[in-house]
Amino acid sequence: MTAKKNKTSFFCTSCGYQSAKWLGKCPGCNEWDCMQEALPDTSSADGYETPQMIAAITELGKTAQPVPLNAINESEQPRQSTKISEFDRVLGGGVVSGSVVLVGGDPGIGKSTLLLQVLDQLSTPQQTTLYVSGEESPGQIKMRSRRMGINNEHLYFLAASGIEEIIKHFRKLKPKALVIDSIQTCHSPEIKSPPGSTSQIRQTAAHLVKIAKLTDTPIFIIGHVTKDGAIAGPKLLEHMVDTVLYFESDTQYPFRILRAVKNRFGSTNEIGVFEMTGSGLVGVDSPSSIFLSERPQNLAGSLVSATIEGSRPILTEIQALVSTAVSGGIPRRTTLGIDRNRATLMIAIIEKRLRLNFSNKDIFLNIVGGLKVVEPAIDLALIAAILSSHLDQVIPTTTLVIGEVGLTGEVRRVNMLEQRLSEALKFGFKKIIVPQGNLSSETTNKSSLKEISTLQELASKLFS
Ligand code: TYD
Ligand code: MG
């Protein structure tokens, strides 16, 4: 096995797949152009498993013993509220002890800010916590915390990046929660490759996971995202941790959306909505109100739909711009917050079913506010926005459109329609276009609802 290992000289920067020769496409994750030459690994058998390291980590807690399933007490995995309700929601109802949570996002989006706020809430006289940063000095953190009004004597700060040093201080302080900012700066001197490389990330993350499980301490790991939107060494890390949260945002807006993409302790659909203010991140209780707050009045190409994020309905504005393309060029299809393939499909459906021609038109689609919507329940609204911009006809501001659209132009039912409707009615929408046969017997306010089953019906009901 050792001989084989020595031969390996290329690895995938995305999933860690190892190969003796360079490959254009990684067989592990099918990514292109991600194989990198590995530095010769001169560390001991399994790299991080040196006897000192094993001793240091196992001393932290008892090693696990087999237990009959019926003897396990569920309350041994209690959840602790961070009192930041948007964060608790994404975690599935609070922090689970011994869990490892990866928080990813673009630089400057608010990862350090959020986790400092979380630790502040978790720090009490009975419970010290530790924030380890390899990126900022104590002075910088102090400045940040002053700005955010945080001055907690039970929240400790450590400027360090060596995993051995971190473990040493962890053993001394015995914090009840730990933040590592960031995994890319964290390194183990036993490994020869530089901090941020796949082998460093794998090994330091493996240590942190062990510590969390052995000591029942929740650990939050901050991970930077590469240009194409993935956490560096992403799949590796995602497999190792319990929960993966990503920050999304549109840089024009102060809103930050935290989305769970993996969660061993809760749903992965939930999102938390925050606003970046002068004193840190503030949870937004009613996301619909912020997404609709800057809505233009009486302009063609804009309308509102109701989407479901996890268990909560959110109203979002959808904008379309259909303009004449440069003659002879390929018409552009640009989307923000919407899957481009889905948008292209909707454009093809309009062309075929409503006999319109967009071959000489550029089409831009946008979900305002930085939300990313993947569910097909906004199909009908996308089509309505495109029609409105193309025909230059205004959709009344109190009209809302919900529905999925199939390839033959049929309007299909959506799930959780009642929740969507109640949110729409709460925000004063007077005409709500919904799929035929989607209403239940309990639906009230039927007079506001217009049921349709085809795109022709949409076109006739939209602008009046
Ligand atoms: P930060 O948490 O450092 O981002 P990350 O750790 O994801 O790189 O956030 C930095 C940005 O947030 C920075 O542009 C300044 C802004 N900010 C505020 O607007 N208000 C605040 O109270 C704080 C602490 C930061
Ligand atoms: Mg940071």
Report the bound ligands by name, code or SMILES. thymidine-5'-diphosphate, magnesium ion
Number of separate domains: 2
Biggest sheet layout: 9 strands, mixed
Strand coverage percent = 15-25%
Describe the structure.
With 464 residues, this protein is of the alpha/beta class. It folds into 2 domains: 79-285, P-loop containing nucleotide triphosphate hydrolases (Rossmann fold, 3-Layer(aba) Sandwich), CATH 3.40.50; 290-462, Ribosomal Protein S5, domain 2. It is 28% helix and 24% strand. It has helices spanning 2-7, 51-58, 85-91, 111-122, 138-147, 163-173, 198-215, 234-240, 287-291, 340-353, 379-391, 417-426, 455-462, and strands spanning 10-12, 18-19, 35-37, 79-80, 95-96, 100-105, 129-133, 155-159, 178-181, 219-224, 243-248, 255-263, 271-277, 280-283, 302-309, 312-324, 333-336, 361-367, 399-401, 404-405, 411-412, 431-435, 449-452. It has a 9-stranded mixed beta sheet with strand order 8-7-9-10-6-11-12-13-14, with helices on both faces. The protein has a 4-stranded mixed beta sheet with strand order 15-16-18-17. The longest helix has 18 residues, at 198-215. It is globular. It starts with a helix and ends with a helix. The relative contact order is 0.09. The structure holds thymidine-5'-diphosphate and magnesium ion (MG). The site of magnesium ion (MG) has 4 residues, from helix 4.
